[in-house]
Specification:
Helix content is 51%, strand content 18%. The chain contains 10 helices and 10 strands. The model is unreliable at 356-374 (pLDDT under 50).
């Protein structure tokens, strides 16, 4: 509305010269580029002053002189970025140096303004504020996407758990009943050579169906995960070797870990997907799975001696199914990385905090796991 007061624009100006400070403010308050803002500024001269001003807030932007007796623009940039990675920072300098301007911009400054051309300051500040708003919006969108990815992954795990339970309770019961009926039929037909081979064939098919059901259940959510992540990874490694003939060595510095269900599941799925990639793509002879826990975090590393690949492929290709797990690691407060090179094998790592937030701190297979998976 026309009668609304102009929005306040809170600035911290790092400047050892009171005259230069007043001159910069004069340009800012008189320029039409900032006509919709009321300038609220304070001057500081050193790092303690800047830190105090940032902590007291609010701060919309920092304008810093480059060269001062007790401070410089590069140090001011570092302090501002520690406070807020998206906070606009403009560097002022009386030195007409292209190298200095390039260095300031490469260090993260939003703009570089000569003190002899302060008429640019208001426009540069407005543009920096708009750019920072864009950065914050992109960061917020990335966070929302990460939260959505985590939610979808939780739903997926719940569906997997429910399906595994249904296979065990319903399909498993039917297969068991069929096995008993077929055994009864075999006894009744005993001594009839014409039908005995067909009965044996049906029994073999039934045994394959039971094995397939168990395999699918374990892939959906292995019961061994209820015993904890270390034994689940050991079981996964031995099963992979039996199926593929690829030697897998599993190592861990802990027999038990106080992980939440979501974290244990994420680490297990990471190992499962990594081994699937080894089986499909790596042409490896050996794989090492290492689970290492400290007081603060737990890290899982899977390394193979296969053909490797160019990690830049992950920027354009589907990513061998690993990029979604990287997102999931971030949603759990952790990190993941993939290192590879053609002919030099592949190493993937996933790390998450060792203890979960209070709302999800129950060990895998405990009450929290039941609530999460329905």
């Amino acid at each position: 509305m026309p009668n609304d007061p102009p929005a306040a624009l809170h600035l911290v100006v790092v400047e050892d010269s009171d005259f230069d400070y007043e001159l910069a403010l004069a340009h800012l308050t008189s320029d039409s580029a900032l006509a919709s803002h009321r300038i609220v500024a304070q001057r500081v001269e050193d790092e303690p002053g800047l830190r105090a001003a940032l902590a007291a807030g609010p701060v919309d932007a920092v304008i810093t002189d480059h060269n001062m007796p007790r401070f410089d623009s590069f140090s001011a940039l570092a302090v501002a970025r520690q406070f807020d990675a998206d906070l606009p920072v403009l560097v002022l300098s009386g030195d007409l140096s292209e190298e200095l301007a390039v260095a300031a911009l490469h260090s993260g400054a939003d703009d570089f303004v000569l003190k002899s051309r302060l008429f640019r300051l208001a426009t540069a500040l407005k543009r920096a504020l708009e750019t920072a708003a864009g950065r914050r919006e992109r960061r917020a969108q990335a966070l929302r996407l990460r939260e959505l990815t985590a939610h979808l992954q939780r739903v997926r795990e719940e569906e997997r758990h429910a399906l595994a339970r249904e296979l065990h309770d319903d399909v498993g019961a039917l297969l068991t009943a069929l096995k008993f009926e077929l055994s009864h039929l075999a006894r009744e037909l005993y001594g009839r050579p014409a039908v005995a081979p067909r009965v044996r064939a049906m029994q073999e098919l039934l045994a394959q169906a039971v094995a397939a059901s168990h395999r699918i259940q374990h892939n959906l959510r292995p019961p061994v995960l209820d015993a904890g992540l270390p034994p689940a990874l050991d079981w996964l490694a031995r099963g992979f070797t039996q199926r593929t003939g690829i030697e897998v060595r599993y190592e861990s510095n802990r027999d038990t870990l106080p992980l939440a269900a979501a974290q244990a599941t994420a680490l297990y799925r990471f190992a499962q997907e990594s081994l699937n990639n080894v089986g499909r793509h790596a042409q490896a002879a050996h794989v090492t799975i290492t689970l290492f826990a400290t007081d603060g975090e737990v890290t899982l590393e899977i390394a193979d001696d296969g053909v490797g690949f160019d990690p830049r492929m992950l920027d354009t290709a589907p990513g061998f199914g690993l990029r979604g797990l990287v997102e999931r690691a971030q949603s759990l407060g952790g990190w993941a990385e993939i290192n590879s090179a053609p002919g030099r094998g592949t190493t993937v790592m996933l790390s998450v905090p060792l203890r979960a937030p209070a709302a999800a701190s129950a060990p895998a297979g405990g009450p929290a796991d039941e609530a999460e998976t329905g």
